[in-house]
Amino acid sequence: MNAVPSPRAVAALSIATLLILVAATPAASAAAGGSGASAPVVAGDSPGTDTSPTRIVDGVSIGQQTGTATPANATNATNTSHENPDEVDRDGDAAAVRSALASRLAERLSEGSVRIEQGEYEAARGALDDDYAELLSAYVEVAGDAADASPEAFERAGERQREYAEAAAEFEETYEAYREARRAGNESRARELARELREDGERVNRTGTNLTRSFDAVESTTAANLTDATSSVRNATASVENRTESAVEATFVRTVVEASVARESAAFDDPVGLSGRIATADGDPVANRTVTLVVGERRLRVATDETGAFETTYRPVGIRTGDRSVRVAYRPADDSVFLGANDTVALAVRPTNATVTITASPERAAAGDRIAVTGTVTANGTPVADAPVRVTVGGTTLGVVRTAENGSYRLAASLPASVTAGEATVTAGVDGGDRAVRAGPAEADVTVASTPVTIDANATAPNGSTAVVAGTVETENGDPVTRGAVEISVDGSVVATARLGDDGTFRRLIDLEDAVGEGDGGDGDRSDGSVAIAVSYADPATSLERASATIRVDRDAGDEATTAAIRSALSSVPVLPLGAVVATGIGLAVLIRRDRGTDPVAGAVGGDEATDGDRVGDDAAAGDRSPGRDLLAAARRRHEAGEERAAVETAYRAARRAVAAGEGVSVPATGTHWEVNAAAGRALPAAAADRFERITERYERVAYGDEQASPSAVADLLEDCEALVNAGDADRASDDE
User: Fold this and answer.
1) Domain boundary among 251, 285, 315
2) What total of structural domains would you count in the chain?
3) Is residue 525 domain-resident?
4) φ and ψ of 395, to 5 deg
5) Which stretch of DSSP H or E encloses residue 704?
């Protein structure tokens, strides 16, 4: 191995150079000492004070050792009308510190709200930059179980204000484009943009309502005052509503739709006649047009006559069974002059059993290969359109696809590595057992071939007593292996594991001193000073084959490179005063000395107990709070308040965050919920993967369908989320032991 300057050598060189410069410039030091400038004051340096290390956050000093806090000296504090940091510093009251931090957090929220009202969206986001996160982190430290503290409320308010700022900025961009289209006389484009304005305006209204509710939660659980912030949000929302209404009135002709059914019950195999009329708000018919009606979950094309009347047939498919109030909505084209309208009809929806066919190709595939699943859904010989078909392979969901008008479906996806080698079953069934059309899964068989894996590894020993082992694990096709971890062995004994990142890479610091000589007699430490390090990968829960690689690392190279670098640096240094020479020599002797039992490099990186930050691809959550724990608490509050849809959406976010922090889980940053579910299925134990899939299914039906989540169903979902978060806590606790 070539002896190259290691990080240790660079550090030694830097210290040596610093000592040389200090010793060579006594005049400058004397001048500085005689200038009358006072030495910097460090918190805790004064005689008789606590010398616990502290950090200052926006003018408030947080004690690191005890978890208590006191505001900093007034010279370091930011002025605030809510709390006097000097007074808090004198009495050392933790409650006053909480109040000071809460006031600063509230100020940031108020500033952001005012900026949004003024249309300064970038500045609004700036009010919730990293400083807000640091303030919130400090607030968490001093909050404890105090009744007058609610870190969750502040965190939720910050998240919702970011959402509101994004929604308001998007509305503003659309509004300016709309005005430009009107000025240019492009009425067709103006109508398209006006429809977007309505959607953007609804999002602003929704996120603004959520934000003011979060402000109320902050005020009800802390001493913060967000009255002005609430007023700013309401003013900004009212402005959006007024401009949206003006654009709609100037651009569209309002309509009315009236609908009725031939009878009050329907099933897919017993469709119901639907008739009605579409007219303008003034009574003029929307005549002789082919229009789109959204009836329940179905989109139907119907023709109106000269009076605006229409007739069609409705076959329920994805709507839930039972007594339903089915929406009938007129949906004009984006560039139409007409505005849409809604009506409802009462129907008792009965179930229909359907039949699913399936074909999977190719019949033999390996991980990463594309597999196509096709088939049809029919009921008593009638093709079923718009039916949601879930496709799985080996128990892992590949995706959900809707049938076409002729009842056919097709899904093509990559075969997950989590499907074990051998015979696997592919299934396709109509999703949702309580829907109007029901169908048990059809099955097909495929053979899953094992996939060879290669490991490209390297290692360096910067000081001889520790080594940094890094590399990449890939399939034979060059696809990264993102599931699981590699084992690292020295002299035949496993000394560490390293999780794989989403690009298939790994990195781990190991202790050579303890490992060499304690194995089973392998070819460990040789007389030439090198040691053999083996890296292996095996995951029996996948179709990936075992792989291993062995590398040798020269334990003496690090010290040789360090010595050479220092000698080179000192070769051109002029003669120095004796004191500087002695100081430099002592520093270099300490750095060069091979005291492997107390190696400073190992201490700096943290050894085996603290190398998570040195691994590539780790998704460890910052701080001590469990990933998803705060979101889960928020979901429970929404459930208790009867906000079941919001509870499901928030609970899913909690589960997704907990899963993303799990061992070996590589969640795509912008992946869909089913892509995330597939990633979880590849890495989680079977029980946890099934639990997360249940959560994902419920989330999809609520967020993307018309399902109204029942309180009991939401309670079950929250229990699943709690189990996932608790499992993550247990895993992290075991990692820390």
Assistant:
1) 251
2) 4
3) no
4) 85, -5
5) helix 686-704
Which residue has tokens 């976010």?
Answer: 653
- Residue 88's φ and ψ, nearest 5 degrees, are -65, -40
pLDDT band at 152 (very low <50, low <70, confident <90, very high): confident
Q: Are residues 212 and 360 in the same domain?
A: no
Q: In three state form, how does the secondary structure of 484-522 look?
A: CEEEEEECCEEEEEEECCCCCEEEEEEEHHHHCCCCCCC
Domain assignment present for residue 222? The answer is: yes
DSSP 206: H
Distance, CA of 555 to CA of 510 (rounded, Å): 13
Asked if the model's pLDDT at residue 50 lies above 90, the reply is: no
- Answer yes or no: do 180 and 110 share one domain: yes
Q: In angstroms, what CA-CA distances link 248 with 241, 521, 567?
A: 11, 82, 78
Q: Do residues 504 and 480 make contact, with C-beta atoms less than 8 angstroms apart?
A: yes
DSSP H or E run through 582: helix 578-592
For residue range 685-723, list pLDDT tens digits in order.
Answer: 777 887 888 888 888 777 655 566 778 788 888 888 888
Task: Please say if the pLDDT value at position 231 is more than 50.
Answer: yes
Alpha carbons 325 and 233: distance in angstroms, whole number? 35
Residue 392 half-sphere exposure, CB side, CA atoms within 13 Å? 18
Full domain range(s) for residue 433: 355-448
One domain for residues 265 and 362: no
Same domain, yes or no: 234 and 309: no
Report the alpha-carbon distance of residue 386 to residue 436 in Å, rounded: 12
Whether 264 and 413 map to the same domain: the answer is: no
Cα separation, 419 vs 448, whole angstroms: 8
Residue in 731, 668, 732, 688 with CA at minimum distance from that of residue 482: 668
| CB distance 311 to 284 below 8 Å | no
In a domain, 543, yes or no: no
pLDDT (0 to 100) of residue 453:
93
Residue with tokens 């076409």: 404
| Domain C-terminal end among 448, 470, 498 | 448
- What is the largest distance, in Å, between two alpha-carbon atoms of the chain? 108
Cα distance between residue 327 and residue 325, in whole Å:
7
Residue 582 located in a structural domain:
no
Amino acid residing at 71:
P
- Asked if residue 298 and residue 227 are part of one domain, the reply reads no
Whether pTM > 0.90 for this model: the answer is no
559-591 confidence digits (pLDDT tens): 444 444 444 433 444 444 444 443 444 344 444
Peptide bond into 362 cis (omega under 30): yes
3-state SS of the chain: helix, strand, coil percent to 5? 40, 25, 35
